[in-house]
Amino acid sequence: MESDSIYQSSQDEWRRDVLLAKGAVEDTISKMPTPLRVEACCVGYQFWKIRDDPRGSDCLGDYCRSVPQIRLFLSTIREQCSQNGDEFSKLVVTTYLHELGHHLGMEESHFENWGL
Q1: Is the dihedral of CA 40, 44, 46, 52 positive or negative?
Q2: Spatial distance between the Cα atoms of 61 and 34, rounded to a whole number of angstroms
Q3: Residue closest to 23 by CA, chosen among 1, 45, 55, 53
Q4: What is the pTM of this model?
């Protein structure tokens, strides 16, 4: 029975993280200037627990050009927050904006100036 409660707890944490992340991303999109908001709404996003490629197991998010979609890896984000004392919603937003920047054609060097 104890393993059932651990499983339920894990599902509850996942649901909580998805709700927090969705709220943070949607709030961020709603505050964007209209042209950027329209573009952000065209891209789409998904929440995954972790990246399916073991070479990028510490990756917080990625952008897929072929589909235009942003993926945020919530368990990895949560783990980094635990290690660094970051706020979960803020790191979700920072990661989302970073990946949206890739959609807009920005390179990694651009993000350093903006803290993304």
Answers
A1: negative
A2: 24
A3: 45
A4: 0.86
Q: Are 40 and 100 in contact (CB under 8 A)?
A: yes
Whether 18 contacts 74, CB under 8 Å: yes
Give the closest residue to 77 by CA, choosing from 89, 69, 66, 68: 89
Amino acid at 93: V
> Is the Cβ–Cβ distance between 110 and 39 less than 8 Å?
no
pLDDT of 9 above 80: no
List the structure tokens of 90. Answer: 């803020």
CB atoms within 10 A of CB 108: 10
Residue pLDDT, tens place only, 35-78: 999 999 999 999 999 888 777 778 999 999 898 999 999 999 99
- For 83, the token pair is 């290690």
Residue of 96, 45, 51, 43 lying closest to 68 (CA atoms): 43
